Every structure is written in C-alpha cells, then in structure tokens.
Amino acid sequence: MTAPTDDERDALVAAFLSGDETALESIYKRYSALVYTVAYRSLGEVTEAEDVTQKVFVAAWTGRKNYQPARASLPAWLMGITRNKIVDAHQARSKQRRIRTEMASQVEPAAPEPMDVAERLIIAEEIARLDKVPQEVLRLAFFEDLTHAQIAERLQMPPGTVKSHIRRSLIKLKRRMEVFTDAYES
Amino acid sequence: MHTNPETLALLALGELETMPEDRHHIDGCPLCQAELAELTHVVDRARQTTGEDAVLHAPSPELWDRIQNELELSGATSVPHQHLTAVGAGAAANPGRTSRVRRTVSFALAAAVLLAAGVGIGANLNKVTAPPAASKPVHLNALPQWPGSGGTAVLTTDAQGHEVLQVSMSSPEPATGRREVWLSDVDARHMRAMGYMDGNTGTFPIPEGMDVRKWPVIDISEEPVPDTSPAHSGNSIVRGRLPV
Q1: Domain check: are B35 and B70 in the same one?
Q2: What is the pTM of this model?
Q3: What is the β-pairing status of strands B191-196 and B236-241?
Q4: Are the C-beta atoms of residues B13 and A149 closer than 8 Å to each other?
Q5: Domain containing B91 — which CATH number?
Q6: What are the pLDDT digits (tens) for A65-106?
Q7: Which of residues 64-83 of B touch A (CB under 8 A)?
C-alpha cells in the first residue's frame, strides 16, 4: 500500500459525494481514530467520545451535500464537524450539571480546545514519520532547545545541513497540519 | 528579496536574534510575516506535544456497526477492526523498514515520557474488584509495520478461580527476539509487563489487586535478547482491546 495520490483522494471524495457507502467506510477507516482520539482527549470519557465519533460520521454522511472540496480538504471538513460535536457535548454536559446543581454560575473546568489537540496529534505523528536524522534534528531543536550550531556539533554535521533539515521538516509539518485544519483556520 | 527560508525557520524556533535588515523586510512583507507566523505556530504546537500525542486510539469495533445501523446503510460490510491506528497509517500507509523505525520511535517516545514522568508501574492500583467472567476472545491486530501478524486474547479464570489472560499470536516474520505481553490503560500512559510468550502462546495470571478493566489494551512487543531494559522496546507487533 502506498500513500493515497491526489487522484485516489479525488476519487474517494467523488464517490463519497455521489452517495457510495463504501466511500464512507473508507473514510471511517482512515479518520475514525483521529476523530475519536481528539474527542476522547477533550471529553475524557470513552462513551461520550464514541457518541461524538458516531455523530461526526453520521453528520458527514447526511450532510455530504454541504461539503465543498474546493474550500477544504475532506479531513479538514471532518475535523470542523468534530470540533462542533465536541463543543455540543461540552454544552450538554454543563447544562446537565446546571440542572443537577441548580447553580448556573458553576462552570466546567476548561477543556482543551479540540483543534489544539488535533494539531498536536497530527504533528506528533508527522514527527514520528520523519526519517531518522531529520527527526533527531527536530527533537533536539524542539525539546532540548539546542541552537542549530549546537545540533551540528552534537550530530557532527555541517551547520548548513542542520539548517536545511530544520527548514524542510518545519515545512512538512506545516503542510501536514494544513491538510487537517485549513477549513477551521479560514 | 524575501527573507531566507532557513532564517525564517530559525526565527520560528526562537533561535536567531533578528538581523536589522531581516526585521525591516519582514515588517514590510506580508508574505514573510505570514510564513513566519505559520512556522512559529507549528513550533509552538510541536513543543506542546507529549508522549500521549504519539498514540491514537481507535473506537471500539462496534461503533461502525452503530453508525451503519443509524444510517440504515445497506451493506454490513467488513468492520474496520483496527485498534490504535496511527494517523498516517490510514491516511498514507507506508509499511516497510522505514515505517517500522518511525513507528518504533513514536512509541518509544511515549514510553520515554512515561519514564520521565516517574510513573511507577502499579501506581494506579485501585481496590480489588470482582473478576469479570470469561470475556469474549478479542482479535489482536497487526501494527502497520507487521503486516500479516495477528492474534487473539481472552480473559478467563484458571482451575483455582484466578483470573488469567490467555494469548496467542502468529507473525510471518521470524522472531528476532522475545515477545512480551503488556497491558496498558486506554491512554497508553501506563503499561504493565505481563510476561514473555512461550512460542506462539502464553497464559498470564492477572496479579492480585490489578483491576484489569483499567488496563484494557493488550500489546505484544518484540524485545531484544538479552532484554536489558524493563521498559517496552517500542516495537509493537499486535494490539487489541479487551471488552472489559
């Protein structure tokens, strides 16, 4: 299996828009873990996270006519729906809580913003997918706060090579993140 | 001329003091400003990631059935029984050597963070609960870098009434090390080593006081020989989730 090409992606989107149920299944296979993990991390509860995941894919299917491929990638569109469903779940929860406690002033502790969680998951995955050397370079730059000169010394590599690894990797991370979040940003 | 992209990357990392000529250019150039802002955002997010972010969790396999039912889809087609799938594994699966290395690193990162946080194994032990009855056997799914591997696990009780985990697995790849069974919580934040497989099977007693419902994720790893580190090698072969 190889990475889906643009053509494959377009074909999947076309099948999805035309109401092909197997396209929905493919989309579910590809993105349900991301949707579910974002929901779980934001809601902290398995059942609610599964409910959100179910709602997202049901809404994607019933609302597929609203999806405009020119405006957002499919995963970005799904992440937008995911975010809305998570916000709904938090609201339902605090409403429940208000009813129970009759204390309208009581606010839920701040939950992580779903898109922040999604971005972290996507970036962590993309870092893990980098080749060994650029991955090590980024790790030293991100988490050990080394300068490119210090990294060059540590890895016995010309500073120019380190710089170009950093630039290329950052751009990869940026592009990957954009695929999933551009609809939301706009 | 626009600011050198490598300079922008280093600025995003907070490394360089801005040269006056770069600052002057960026201040007046919406393109360079936007690029720098986006790269800085990537760096900020990356620095916020933790080991927890390196693992995605799949919803239970039944969820797809629920969705099909709610939508009244025609085909009860094959259920995607993937557990803990990586983002890229679905979106852009690239099995093979490099993929294995990368995946290993990301899981190792999770393990490293776990150790750094000083989480003692068993720190989460709660009060003893009644052991659940024998569970349905669950399928253990291959990680993308171990195509063709699989297994099953079942939670049951032995003749003395003690809870045991029975595991079997197979892999087309010959074992280069020992295969070790782990249970982890749904966050994969905490892992417990259950023991080594005996060939393709293994039976592991659940320790007294361990509430297996809090440790539903089962993972089999390939460990080096000699296995000098008590931690997970980061090289997972199959995973699944006990229905507890």
Answers
A1: no
A2: 0.58
A3: unpaired
A4: no
A5: 2.60.40
A6: 999 988 888 999 999 999 999 999 998 888 777 776 655 454
A7: 64, 66-67, 70-71, 73-75, 77, 80, 82
Contacts of B41 by beta carbon, 8 Å cutoff, 6+ apart:
none
Judge whether A160 lies within some domain.
Answer: yes
CB B91 within 8 A of CB A30: yes
- Whether A84 and A136 map to the same domain: the answer is no
Give the length of chain A.
186
Q: Verify that A10 and A92 share a domain, yes or no.
A: yes
Q: How far apart are CA B200 and CA B56, in angstroms?
A: 27
Are residues B134 and B161 located together in one domain of the fold?
yes
Q: Do A17 and A100 reside in the same domain of the chain?
A: yes
Tokens of B66: 């629920």
Whether residue B49 and residue A120 make contact (CB cut-off 8 A), yes or no, is yes
- The answer to the question of residue A120 being in a domain is no
The reported pLDDT for the residue numbered A97 is 74
3-state secondary structure of B31: helix
Please report whether residue A123 resides in a domain: no
First to last CA, chain A: 33
Task: Work out the minimum CA distance from A80 to partner chain B, whole angstroms.
Answer: 17
Closest chain B residue by Cα to residue A119: B45
Q: Which of B67, B74, B145, B214 to mutate to test the interface with A (most CBs of A within 10 A)?
A: B67
Between chains, do A121 and B56 touch, taking CB under 8 Å as contact? yes
Full domain range(s) for residue B155: 51-244
pLDDT tens-digit series, residues B24-40: 898 889 999 999 999 99
Specify the CATH number for the domain of residue A40.
Answer: 1.10.1740.10
**Would the CB atoms of A75 and B91 count as touching at under 8 Å?**
yes
Cβ separation A3–B94 shorter than 8 A = yes
For residue A150, what are the domain limits?
A: 130-186
For residues A106 and A135, membership in a common domain is answered with: no
Residue A122 within any structural domain of the chain:
no
Q: How many domains does chain A have?
A: 2
Q: Measure the CA dihedral B61/B62/B65/B69, to 10°.
A: -150
Write the burial class of residue B87 (CB in 10 Å: 0-12 exposed, 13-18 middle, 19+ buried): buried
More confident position, B46 or B225:
B46
